[in-house]
């Protein structure tokens, strides 16, 4: 009798878990939770980060070495 009662509790718990997971899958509740709760929280956090504006940095053509493709100026032998 005790074994039967324990088995029914385990099967009932498994059935409820299965129904709960099916509802999450069917109504896409995990995707909705990510979209409505997690994404705005992450967006708010990462929007506060300081970023360099790459368009405002000088190009600096003089910072690069002079390239020469003649035979006497080759770097690689």
Short description:
It is built from two helices and no strands.
Question: How would you characterize the overall build of this protein?
Answer:
- By secondary structure, the protein is mainly α.
- It has a domain at 10-47.
- It contains two helices and no strands.
- The protein has helices spanning 2-26, 29-47.
Order of helices and strands: HH
Task: Give the number of helices.
Answer: 2
Q: Globular, elongated, flat, extended or rod-shaped: what is the shape?
A: elongated
Distance between the termini: 89 Å
Structural class of the helices, strands and pairings?
Answer: mainly alpha
Largest sheet: none
Share in β-strands: under 5%
User: Low-confidence runs (pLDDT<50, min 5 residues)?
Assistant: none
| Residues in helices, as a percent range | 55-70%
Rg (C-alpha, Å)? 32 Å
Mean pLDDT: 87
Oligomer: single chain
Descriptive labels:
single chain, 2 helices, mainly alpha, 77 residues, 57% helix
């Amino acid at each position: 009798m005790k074994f039967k009662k324990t088995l029914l509790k385990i099967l009932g718990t498994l059935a409820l878990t299965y129904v709960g997971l099916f509802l999450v899958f069917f109504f896409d509740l995990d995707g909705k939770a990510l979209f409505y709760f997690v994404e705005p929280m992450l967006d708010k956090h990462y929007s506060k980060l300081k970023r360099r504006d790459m368009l405002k940095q000088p190009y600096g053509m003089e910072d690069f070495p002079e390239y020469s493709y003649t035979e006497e100026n080759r770097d690689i032998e």
